[in-house]
Amino acid sequence: MSQPQPRRTIRELPDVLISQIAAGEVIERPASVVRELVDNALDAGARHITLRLLGGGIRLISVEDDGCGIPVEELPVALKRHATSKIVSLEDLESVATMGFRGEALAAVNSVSEMSLLSRTEGAATAFLLDGQTGEVRPAARAVGTTVEVKELFFSTPARRHFLKSENTELAHCIEAVRRHALVRSEVSFAIWHEGKIVEQWRSHPGEAGWNQRLADVLGEDFVASSVNIDFRSGPVHVRGRAGTPDAARARADQQFAYVNGRFVRDKVITHGARSAYEDVLHGQRQPVYVLYLQMDPTRVDVNVHPTKIEVRFRDSREVHQAMRHAIERALAVPRAQLLASGDIALPQGSSGTDTAASFLSPTPSAPPLQSTWSQRGMAFGADRTAEDPAKAMADLKALWGNADQVQEHAPSFAQSPANGVSMLSRNENAAQEWPLGRAIAQLQGVYILAENSQGLIVVDMHAAHERIVYERLKQQLDTTQISSQPLLIPASFAATPQEMSTAENCSDVLQQLGLEVSALSAKTLAVRAVPTSLAQGDAVELARSVLAELAQHDAATVVQRAQNEILATMACHGAVRANRKLTLDEMNALLRQMEATERSDQCNHGRPTWRQVSMRELDALFLRGR
Ligand SMILES: Nc1ncnc2c1ncn2[C@@H]1O[C@H](COP(=O)(O)OP(=O)(O)OP(=O)(O)O)[C@@H](O)[C@H]1O
Ligand SMILES: [Mg+2]
User: Fold this and answer.
1) Residue 41 CB partners (closer than 8 Å, separation 6+)
2) What is the pLDDT of residues 518-570, one digit of tens each?
3) Distance between CA atoms of residues 469 and 384, nearest Å
4) Top-level CATH class of 370-478+578-622?
5) From the CB of 57, is ligand 1 less than 6 Å away?
6) Domain spanning 15-202, CATH class
7) For the whole model, what pTM was predicted?
8) Which CATH number does 220-333 carry?
9) Residue 198 CA to ligand 1 centre (angstroms)
10) Residue of 87, 290, 303, 415 with fewest CB within 10 Å of its CB?
11) How far apart are CA 594 and CA 458, in angstroms?
12) What are the b/e assignments for 216-227, b being 16+ CB within 10 Å?
């Protein structure tokens, strides 16, 4: 065992060491420097920002901006710790609108690199250059704005330098740091140079349309084409942006961008809220993609909780979680066929331009807009008496429902079909060519329905599609009736943690709304006295525990909903038409119309697609037509 050290005198640390310790928290790698410098440039009102790197940013990071500049007499102050022009009081901090507020970044960077500041303000006769090592200031040449140069990062702290990865990896992190800024500031242009070559350039685009363009520039056209617009208010939280359709999900969570009041954040509440919105439509471990901007009163969020400001703390995390979930859920619910018909989502430009059979059954339809008529394609289709008759279509689906043995009692009769479904049918009464999912032409091997629309061929997985329709019906029915609660004959008690005890006490109202009654039996024991009727067969303690855990963090409605949805999904699977059942054309058409009107009908209950479009171009390519 080591002997206790003799006591040393308490001393104040030297300034440089204090800054180096602070830098340990703020500056992890070149990308952290890039983030801080671009933050500063944006705070200074820059319209054009140029980043130049050498050696992945390890040898040189230079950020040039055309912002307001720093007056010569303030140059040395800018490098001091706790020196800032952005706040002066605690009130300022609580409503801070700038990226920076601590007056720490430049001091931290300066303590672990060779830094210089070159800056000129409006009206100044010349620019001035400050050497961060010597503190020397001298006149220099430059237009209005600021250039910060950071050389040999961590040269004075070799231990840190050893943690750096390859130049390419560090470069990728630097680019990612600028991407995060670029996605939220489309009015600012960004250019990134590495070793004298330009590696990224994003021109400025003003306004709403410009923002979509910026998303396309940074994340690719595909991102915009396969995502839906989001603009949703929930209490004090406003969520805007774009969320990818389930088809666009990726193996990695590398396209999830969330911003709170313009600041990029990585936040558990936000990620979890988004994830739960996809729960019902995403297959397996796939990761959704999104770029979402949350706007709320600055007093509802504390940005001063993490050294790099990448984490925040919400005053009410439940309201944020709910806003995220509902915003995305609502937007995703609209069937793609409806969005395409209304022009709310764009078709990817020329994604079938490859013209290979490999793009056969591409998940994203890629043909001319739906409005193009049959005659334009030179393919008049024979009059079909039933496809244009909504009443007949309804009767047909009613017949389908009648065959759905297991769910008969749960299945709402067709007369109660959702309002939008009915209007959809009647709106298109005389315009069969406008039906996004087209007109049924055949059934294939008892598994697929084939239909033709203006773009070509539609292939529908009959069972998967019908399963979703039944499932959505059941959910809707449950939503409109209040969650009914069933008292347990014998209350189920369990040993609770202090956290669970206090949540049960503080949230009894919410619990009750969810159909749960949980109360204290003793100081360390909770008893479940009632559960939602639909979940009465399940494990009451397990349900209560997961609801309490969720409630402590987010909004517990998700747990109950998830448990209920699982049951409904099982019921729906039994109720949906089986494979190998012969459908008449009328029945098939009825199913197509129902899909167009049913929320989330693009995915089956397990997140797999229910239909695919094969465009005429893709078919032509298969037969080498037009070559
Ligand atoms: N590119 C720039 N253009 C104009 N002024 C700048 C620029 N960079 C820094 N400054 C000035 O220098 C000050 C110190 O910058 P620094 O980044 O150290 O602190 P901050 O941005 O105020 O707070 P934080 O530590 O949270 O970033 C800023 O408050 C600002 O006045
Ligand atoms: Mg700063």
Assistant:
1) 49, 63, 65, 67, 146
2) 999 999 999 999 988 777 777 889 888 888 887 777 666 677 777 777 767 77
3) 25
4) alpha beta
5) no
6) alpha beta
7) 0.77
8) 3.30.230.10
9) 26
10) 415
11) 15
12) bbbbeebbbbbb
